[in-house]
Amino acid sequence: MGMTITEKILAAHCGKDRVHPGQFIQAKIDFCLANDITAPLAIEEIRRAGIRKVFDPERIALIPDHFTPNKDVKSAEQVKLMREFAHEHGIRHYYEVGRCGIEHAFLPEQGLVVPGDLVIGADSHTCTYGALGAFSTGMGSTDLAAAMALGETWLRVPQSVRFRFEGRLRRWVGGKDLILFTIGQIGVSGALYRAMEFCGPVIESLSIDDRMTMCNMAIEAGAKSGIIAPDRVTEEYVAKRAQRPWRCFQSDPDATYAESHSWDVSGLEPQVAAPHLPENAKPVSEYRDVRIDQVVIGSCTNGRITDLRSAAAVLKGRKVAPPVRAIIIPATQEVYAQALREGLLEIFIAAGAAVSTPTCGPCLGGHMGVLAAGERALATTNRNFVGRMGHKDSEVYLCGPAVAAASAVTGVITHPDELGSAECQ
Amino acid sequence: MIIRGRCWKFGDNVDTDAIIPARYLNTTDPRELGAHCMEDVCPQFAAKVRPGDILVAGENFGCGSSREHAPVALRGAGIACVIAASFARIFFRNAINTGLPIIECPAAVVVIQEGDEVEVDIAKGLLRHLRSGRKFAIEPFPPEIRRIIEAGGLMNLVKQRVR
What we know:
The complex is a heterodimer. Chain A has helices at residues 5-12, 39-48, 73-89, 103-109, 141-150, 175-186, 201-204, 208-216, 232-239, 299-302, 305-315, 333-341, 344-351, 401-410; strands at residues 24-28, 31-35, 60-63, 93-94, 118-122, 135-138, 152-156, 160-166, 195-199, 225-227, 259-264, 271-273, 281-283, 294-297, 325-328, 354-355, 376-379, 395-398. Chain A is an alpha/beta fold. In chain A, the strands form 5 sheets. A 5-stranded parallel β-sheet of chain A has the order 4-3-2-5-6. Chain A starts with a helix and ends in a 15-residue tail after the last helix. The relative contact order of chain A is 0.14. The model of chain A has no long low-confidence stretch (mean pLDDT 97). Chain B is an alpha/beta fold. Chain B has 8 helices and 7 strands. In chain B, strands 4-3-2-1-5-6-7 form a 7-stranded mixed β-sheet. In chain B, a hairpin with a 4-residue loop joins β5 (117-121) and β6 (126-129). The two termini of chain B are 29 Å apart.
């Protein structure tokens, strides 16, 4: 019997020829990470346990991205704790504001995570790196503390679910729409504890950025991980970035899946998920006269260069509707600089959007775009839970960058195709 | 360990933003986190919760972020145990690692109403619903997870290995 890509990566990291779903393993990790919210608890655990040495300072990243640039004194104290811990242990992959960005965009971009890796992170969206053909999963701070001490973690081998996407995507439809559609089909606990494996001709045609968007939101279906087998697109992305050798795994044709789904997505419209769960996904055309106060384009889900290009293609020569605040946040410094070179930032500013330094900020209601009671945002972020972006009586709708940009122009949830020349100025 | 307490009842998909909103994550202090526990979905919770109370919820409890502040906030608020139909996986690990007792028992969740008292005998694997007198068997955790619980949390096991 064959193995899935996930089972092969896990087996390779626990010194076994094969593993099977349900099996507990103690696995070696290639890389681990934490941020300014989760690292402080992990550091406290390490200190309380009297652990003086981390397993390998080169394989740990501490990224201040959530409440940075520090939003208040307490946040500054948390980052200070991280900085001092990094210094004390010689952790080189600690970065100050201005030299990093949102962790899940930054680490792949810098080649710090590579195909075949086993990565754990004290952040639920660590599953993003599955887009490179790595096994990566989010955990809490204590798990991260244990991993920093031992270079190992315990895992229960997940069952895999296969999602095959056939057909050809329409214009304005991308990874975000595919993953919102998928979560809409299976629900927010539809892949609980499982590995979601995305495949098929549509996936092969996607950029790494779009693949990252999909794997990033596997957690929103309850999954342990999301993964896409590496191919030429992956090799091309990784070859110019990798700081370590990588290894490409593929699922065997006779691998076992707990479930298999296959969808022809040729007719798929851009998707929008209504409050308060990502599973409330529907085609954008089903939203009529949904007024919005704020648009956020960014986050670990959709703050990469192709996302900004998509937003700029819509916003070029147009203006953000007067009652709307549009906030655009490049996910990393590299994305920011690239957007600058390509003239995208100029398009955004000319349209009347605010362009911010990289931060998770508004996605989790931290800062840089928090909502008041009764306000409604349309965001390219990943969660629309009650109070996620601010006041408990505010609302978040989720979508991809093109719909977010089009809606910023009209002030209501809008399909980009609906923008006539009337909005052009 | 026997836990007997009054129950608070919530629905499915109670997310980590509901358990502890992100705006309070600039601290790691359990008391401070506890003071804001469930604030956005149940504003009176922190004021009315009593030490030893039990939180009961439906499917996928603790979905969303990896924040360990969620089980820390629940414990900080005085919650002695969470009973749910199912748990989101990161919350599950975080609760086990930090010593918050959690029990997966979908049959009991259907029966328990807000304000009911239940008694949980973890060693015997028995949950008793006092109002109806009904008893529910609790499925034991696999040995690998029991080992963490019995050690008093993951870091105690790590300490043994590092020394």
